[in-house]
Structure prediction request, 239 residues.
Amino acid sequence: MLVDIFIPCFIDQMFPQTAFNMIKILEKVGCTVNYNPNQTCCGQPAFNGGYWDQCKDVGEKFIRDFPNDRYIVSPSASCVGMVKNYYPELFHNTVLHNEYKTVQKNIFELSDFLVNVLKVTNIGARFDGVATYHDSCSGLREVGIKKEPRTLLANVRGLELREMNDTETCCGFGGTFSVKYEPIAVGMAEQKVTNAEETHAEYMISTDVSCLMHLDGYIKKQGKKLKVIHLADVLASGW
Prediction:
């Protein structure tokens, strides 16, 4: 199967290894991966900030960057959620109506694609340690994934997954929310990290590197031992 991949801004600029690990996983399960180097952003930061005209410009480019009717896989539930849920606000009944509908239909977050499209639940990974899983707001509420990442993690040899309290509660990032309302965002991160520590986990795993970046900032500032890691980085380990 030939699939396109979309690499979000955060991952492209700060966590490129996660992107390479997603490619590694997709190739292992039989996919041929196509990457369009002209791709940039889905427009989510501008949309959430209220700059809808600028977001529409970015969104038009995104749509034109994926002109083929084939699956688009991304290691970011928030970006996938943006395209699936908010592109209709921008492009419904426009000249790009048919094109946006095609992209909206084809784009999938990695775990959703593996479990529900390819029907793959065991990548053959090994990752030794105790971990807890953080449900990002976008993954849970906009993309509808909860069991998918857990199903994949349950089949990782050496990994013990422990559920933390309030796993479905926001970590406090929320894009510009964490900048505009820093004290609230820090308090939310503190509670999330406390809940993770109560499980005695060594790692916190998520599908959204933006959440993990926010939490990691709090963890490092407080000198805590907890580590954060993206789902793709776990699934690409040990083989």
